[in-house]
Amino acid sequence: MAVVRRLRSFMAMAGGRVGRNGLLSLIQSVIGVGAYFWVMRYVVAVAGLEGVGLWSLTMGFVALVRLMDLSGASGLARMVASETNSSKAQAAYIDTCTGFIFVLYIVLSFLAYLPLRSAISGSVNSASLEVAHELLIWALLALPINIIGVSQLSAIDGLGRADIRSVVNISSFAIFGLLAAVLVPTEGILGLAYAQFAQYVTVLFFARLVLVANIPTLGIIPTRFSREAWTSSTNYGFRLQASTVPMSLFDPLTRILLARYLGLESLGIYDLSYKLAGNVRTLVQAALNPLVPEFTRLHRSSVKGAKALHSQVSIKSIRAVILSFLALVLVSPLLSLFLLEEISSNFIFCVAVFSLGWGTSSFGLITQLYARAAGVLRWSIVGQWGLLSSGIGATVWLSENDRGSITIVAMTVASAIAMGHLFAFIGETRTLSLLPLGTRQSAILTCLEIAGFIVFTSSVAFLAW
After folding, report:
1. Four-CA torsion 212, 216, 219, 225, nearest 10 degrees
2. Is 154 exposed, middle or buried (0-12, 13-18, 19+ CB in 10 A)?
3. CA distances (Å), 179 to each of 59, 165, 176, 190, 196, in order?
């Protein structure tokens, strides 16, 4: 009963904040996803699917630079949330992380330029080479700004003000969409790079202003460096990176293989459908992310209360995942008309298959967020490395043996995503003694809902194939 009273007290205090933050995070993600695909429609119209493929390939190569990121930038929310009683400690974490990111990514971008330029040269035809090299330069220039901006947004989450973070992001999406709509028709795919650079600058500037306004000891320019904060953030960053490196490798390597063996047009279809499904997961996670600092705070005072909150939210999140991906599959023909100006069976198939893969992987979202708040990352690490080895291994084999097609590769990638995340979900559930499906009756009902989702989505994929 004491646990129940404590949980109710906590939810009464935090419920309004979590609800507000979750709603605005969801709105932010909807606008962000909408802006991106609205812009992609311009890109397809101006540069074709090959242009989408070239953008995807270049961003995939640049993403490889992040493999050396030990800054713990995206985990800054957890550190800031753990120091709610000391603004000096919060400022020390933020400034230390910001300065470290700046130095690290300037060095990494400089060292990566020539190897990435050479790799891109071997992956595209001569007609696209000049544009690809310019895209690479702009992407590397934007990379440090982007990661520092992400760290500042994460710190805002740690303050419990994900609503403000959402407003900052919404503003940046508006700037990105407007600039891209103006620049892509005249500058081609490079206009997208210019718009993205402006978006990242906007995020960094306004996010830093928000932090300065909320933390009295923080200035506009980072001036602090704390060895203790650096050690703590890099230690957590190392563990966090170990769990995200596989996906950071998996996504760009898949794009590179597709570009080499199937061409930029196939990569364009793959990228659009993959991101549609991946962004649905992002939308659901955006509404749930504000729970991470709440889990962290509650876990410190009452582990039983934190587990009760997890069970309360988990079933609802699974149903939200099912409904969201079902909606995506149902509207995939309309999305094909909107983006490609035709109903493409390959596109609909890939959307259905990736919805199955990302949807299955999203059933454990709340458990993953809870484990991150509790500092339990090992199962996520193992699952992600399994995802990488199985997915890339199968894709390479298919490509080298001339058995690959956009449909086969999509099924291979979706299967790897689902299995890797499910393995982590099961491991985290057992280690932390959680009940993500609830009690017996609710667990049976949830399992039936999941089975219905799998059958329907698989049927749509079969019909499109």
Report:
1. -120
2. buried
3. 19, 21, 5, 12, 9
Tokens 């990242």 sit on residue:
200
What would the two tokens of residue 355 be? 């919805």
Contact 118, 124 (CB under 8 A): no
Q: How far is CA 58 from CA 53, 168, 180, in A?
A: 9, 26, 18
Domain count of the chain? 1
DSSP state of 74: G
358 burial level (CB within 10 Å; 0-12, 13-18, 19+): buried
The Cα–Cα gap between 254 and 396 comes to 9
In a structure prediction context, what are the per-residue pLDDT tens digits for the chain, which is 465 residues long? 444 444 444 444 444 555 566 677 667 777 888 888 888 888 888 888 888 888 888 888 888 787 666 555 556 767 777 666 677 878 888 888 888 888 888 988 899 899 999 988 887 888 788 898 999 999 999 999 998 998 888 888 878 787 888 889 899 999 999 999 999 998 888 999 999 999 999 999 999 999 999 888 888 888 877 777 777 767 766 666 666 666 667 777 777 777 777 778 888 888 889 888 988 888 787 777 767 666 766 666 667 777 777 777 888 888 888 998 999 999 999 988 888 888 888 899 999 999 999 998 888 888 877 777 777 767 776 776 666 666 666 666 655 555 557 777 788 888 888 888 888 888 887 887 777 777 777 788 888 888 999 999 999 988 887
Instruction: Write the DSSP symbol of residue 298.
Output: H
Indicate the burial class of 41 (C-beta count within 10 angstroms; 0-12, 13-18, 19 or more).
Answer: middle
Calculate ∠ Cα 55-57-60, nearest 5°: 110
User: How far apart are the two ends of the chain, measured CA to CA in Å?
Assistant: 54
Residue by residue, DSSP assigns 4-23 as HHHHHHHHHHHHHHHHHHHH
Q: How far from chain centre, in Å, is Cα 353?
A: 19
Amino acid found at 104? L
- Residues present in the chain in total: 465
Alpha-carbon distance 178 to 171, whole Å?
Answer: 11
pTM of this prediction? 0.73
State the residue for tokens 């890339």: 392
- Note down the domain range covering 230: 2-464
The span from the CA of 441 to the CA of 309, in Å, is: 19
Phi, psi (rounded to 5 degrees) for 75 = -95, 10
Residues 180, 29: Cα–Cα separation, whole Å = 18
Dmax over CA atoms of the chain, in Å, equals 70
Cβ atoms of residues 233 and 76 within 8 Å: yes
